């Protein structure tokens, strides 16, 4: 949360004021790609390790997951370099983005050592340090006129060094490993990775599709118009954790699902206005130069944020009650639907067309989720 606030409220607004529109769109797009890779590959490996940690002895667990992390780190570097070449980013900026990609990718995985031991105080300290490092990065960027990509390098470096110090120098975790293959864990990881890759691609899809179709200005406008709404959605993270903890221990009756559906429908209208006017206020404060363009789509974007928020609240139920294979099939269907709608509506109607495509996709996703949950069992979902 702290790191998101630093980037959304400090780094991006600063870059918007200093860099030209092309550089700003490059930051938005490359940051999106790097987050997709880090979340889909590295964070999924962390979750896989947490899920399977009880089934392996300590040495085998270290060897298997270290081997897998080494492999996906190479994949991450190759994909990042390829993307930098495709988008024709200059060599100095590319070096900054590449280091940022490596640092955040490594941080996402190394946090597993603290999560395994439930050492959340250390995680908080690391996050505070990263937050302060981003402030330092902005200061150096403004005072010394360094390349904008190195704000992210400076922001991540101190946190990564601190993690390495905790893990390998204080806790004395082994650094060396023997390459080890475990078929069951690899297949479990690949399954989760594919699902999370699709989810994250869809989360950052606006940055991927808008740039080649209607240009960097559209990327900037949509990003700015949607940022406040996405920040509001961060509130659902602790709510989701509570819901998942509750449903893990309780039988969920069909009537409860219906009550949740009715409640979510009721709060949609006030939620829409909260997101809409908070977005306008946010744009007016941090991106005043985009106020006119962003205001034209802020109502559409608010609808998208409302639907995304509701889907996020429902998400714990899908994890708990819908089989992983069905989840994978659904994600593939949503992805195809989203891409087709976007490619049809965006070239013709621009940003508004893209917003309509996104709204239809999210509505279909929400409707199907509830239909599946309600039909899972006539009376009780166990």
Automatic annotation (TrEMBL):
Domain of life: Bacteria
Entry keywords, A to Z: Cell membrane, Membrane, Transmembrane, Transmembrane helix
Mode of membrane association: Multi-pass membrane protein
Gene Ontology cellular component annotations, sorted alphabetically: plasma membrane
Location in or out of the cell: Cell membrane
Transmembrane segments: 27-45, 65-85, 91-112, 124-142, 148-168, 231-248, 260-285, 297-314, 326-345, 351-374
PANTHER family per UniProt: O-ANTIGEN TRANSPORTER-RELATED, PST FAMILY PREDICTED COLANIC ACID TRANSPORTER
Name the UniProt record assigns to this protein: Polysaccharide biosynthesis protein C-terminal domain-containing protein
Organism: Macrococcus psychrotolerans
